[in-house]
Design a protein that fits this description.
Layout lengths: L5 E4 L16 H14 L3 E4 L13 H14 L3 E4 L6 E2 L14 H5 L1 H6 L8 E5 L4 E6 L4 E7 L4 H13 L3 E6 L2 H12 L8 E6 L9 H10 L5 E6 L4 H10 L3 E4 L6 E3 L2 E2 L3 H14 L7 H8 L6
Parallel strand pairs: 1-2, 1-11, 2-3, 3-5, 5-8, 8-9, 9-10, 10-11
Antiparallel strand pairs: 4-7, 6-7, 12-13
Helix pairs in contact: 1-2, 1-9
Length: 304
């Protein structure tokens, strides 16, 4: 079986209030990324954060401040976010004080980062549709957050063009089967270039539930010549990514998706999450891909 690509999503939209170990500043993100790389991750997925508040941000300079030291000390593949900020269900922007909320502005970090060879990403997340993101608090019995990440087909065509023009491969984030179909359509009309790379995102309220049947169903829709990975939120992460490994796919872990090593046991670092999935993979006889090997598997240019 092909070697396993381990992606570590080091921060994402997770709240700094819920996890004291979450990397927030660019310096903390760089340190966490390097630790995850040493533990076996060949891809690091990064969201920008305000270094003062630790809250979500989307400014190229914040990405750059994290990426450059990672690049200077490792050969890891860099995957930046172009998603994660959208419209609330009442139509207002989720974060009014945060710039870069439109699709055009969010993908605009790619040309900005590409001006610096050390900051240019290899991959970028590409939401293949408009996922509804609902976060429900069992404690308060209410929805903590409700919003839609809006991506029309023209939006997606434009975002793909920016990525293609700057040599950045889209990682196709698919929150349900319809988004896989969207990506295949975009490939048919020439907006997305083959070979495609899919990320099956599971377990989010508003998206496809995290079950083995659903993962199998998603994978059956993906062309055989395409690479794919799986991620899932909370403790559903471990069975879903383990199943993905057994099925020949790749695995994503990290504090963006899940902050627990086991039930009630908080991970103190992203590296601990990577170490666990690497250990499971080796127990299953699946070798771990180095960043150079992952580049070949994903059809990325060799590191200069």
């Amino acid at each position: 079986m092909e070697k396993l690509i381990v992606t570590c999503a080091i921060t994402g939209g997770a709240s700094p209030d819920s996890n004291p170990y979450l990397p927030k500043s660019p310096k903390e993100q760089a340190q966490s990324a390097l630790e995850a790389w040493r533990a076996g991750a060949s891809v690091i997925h990064i969201h920008a954060r305000d270094p003062v508040t630790g809250r979500a941000a989307h400014e190229a300079k914040l990405f750059e401040e994290a990426i450059v030291p990672i690049r200077e000390q490792s050969d890891v593949i860099i995957n930046v976010s172009t998603g994660g900020i959208g419209r609330r269900v009442d139509g207002e922007w989720l974060y009014k004080k945060i710039p870069h909320t439109s699709c055009e502005e969010r993908v605009g970090v790619i040309p900005e980062l590409s001006r610096n060879p050390l900051a240019k990403p290899d991959l970028a997340s590409f939401n293949a549709g408009s996922p509804v993101i609902d976060i429900y608090s069992k404690k308060t019995q209410d929805f903590v957050l409700r919003f839609v990440m809006v991506h029309s087909f023209p939006d997606m065509v434009d975002m793909a063009k920016v990525m293609n023009d700057h040599g950045v491969k889209p990682e196709l984030e698919c929150y349900d089967v319809s988004m896989i179909n969207n990506a295949l359509f975009l490939s048919e009309v020439g907006a997305l270039k083959d070979p495609l790379y899919f990320q099956c995102v599971m377990g989010i309220l508003g998206g496809i539930p995290a079950t083995l049947d659903n993962l199998s169903h998603m994978v059956r829709q993906i062309p055989k010549d395409c690479q794919w990975s799986a991620c899932s939120v909370g403790m559903t992460e471990w069975p879903m990514v383990t199943a993905a490994m057994i099925m020949g796919g790749h695995a994503r872990v990290g504090m963006e998706d899940n902050i627990y090593l086991s039930d009630g046991v908080l991970a103190k670092s992203n590296a601990e999450l990577v170490e666990k999935i690497v250990r499971i993979a080796r127990e299953l006889g699946r070798e771990i891909a180095t960043p150079d090997e992952a580049r070949k598997i994903l059809g990325l240019p060799a590191k200069a």
